[in-house]
């Protein structure tokens, strides 16, 4: 698997995990207790929100369920289109002799499907954000910033060689 295929697969897996996590949280399958989500107490999430840490009201939880369900219906065909585009790209890449036009067209199809998926995820994020109170929105932004800082720190550590090696 080449680098592009790995990156594309990673994007699809991340999107599926985010959508699945949001669905699990919204359905309340995370277990008992305040903010119990698919990742444990206080760790529920949906598209960047740590919903379990925002003290959602029952009405807000129902709205998240409804929003998630609505977006799942619109995102599913896009994810199927992405999967088909990735398979077509794989076939074009593995064709002998190389047909550059076919590879480029297949790569463009993958990119278009990825872009559509990112737009759908942004809409989901926006729709969920819009049902939060001002205080919840502020806290959500803080939690997102903290998560981004942790991710940047992990990336920096991953780029450094282990101690004792040059």
In terms of topology, how is this protein built?
Layout lengths: L2 H24 L9 E2 L2 E2 L16 H37 L5 H31 L3 H26 L7
Antiparallel strand pairs: 1-2
Helix pairs in contact: 1-2, 1-3, 2-3
Description:
With 166 residues, the protein is mainly alpha-helical. It has one domain (3-136). Helix content is 71%, strand content 2%. A two-stranded antiparallel sheet has the order 1-2. Helix 1 runs antiparallel to helix 2, helix 1 packs parallel to helix 3 (100-130) and helix 2 runs antiparallel to helix 3. The model is unreliable at 22-48 (pLDDT under 50).
In short:
The chain has helices at residues 3-26, 58-94, 100-130, 134-159, and strands at residues 36-37, 40-41.
Structural features:
single chain; 4 helices; 2 strands; 71% helix; mainly alpha; 166 residues
């Amino acid at each position: 698997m080449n680098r592009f295929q790995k990156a594309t697969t990673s994007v699809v897996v991340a999107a599926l995990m985010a959508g699945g996590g949001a669905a699990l949280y919204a359905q309340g399958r995370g277990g008992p207790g305040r903010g119990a989500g698919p990742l444990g107490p206080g760790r529920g999430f949906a598209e960047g929100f740590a919903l379990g840490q925002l003290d959602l009201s029952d009405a807000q939880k129902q709205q998240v369920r409804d929003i998630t369900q609505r977006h799942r219906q619109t995102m599913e065909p896009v994810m199927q289109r992405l999967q088909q585009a990735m398979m077509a790209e794989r076939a074009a890449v593995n064709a002998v002799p190389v047909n550059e036009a076919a590879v480029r067209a297949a790569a463009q199809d993958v990119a278009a499907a990825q872009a559509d998926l990112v737009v759908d995820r942004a809409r989901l994020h926006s729709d969920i954000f819009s049902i939060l109170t001002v205080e919840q929105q502020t806290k959500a932004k803080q939690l997102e910033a903290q998560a981004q800082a942790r991710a940047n720190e992990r990336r920096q550590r991953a780029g450094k060689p282990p101690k004792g090696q040059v």
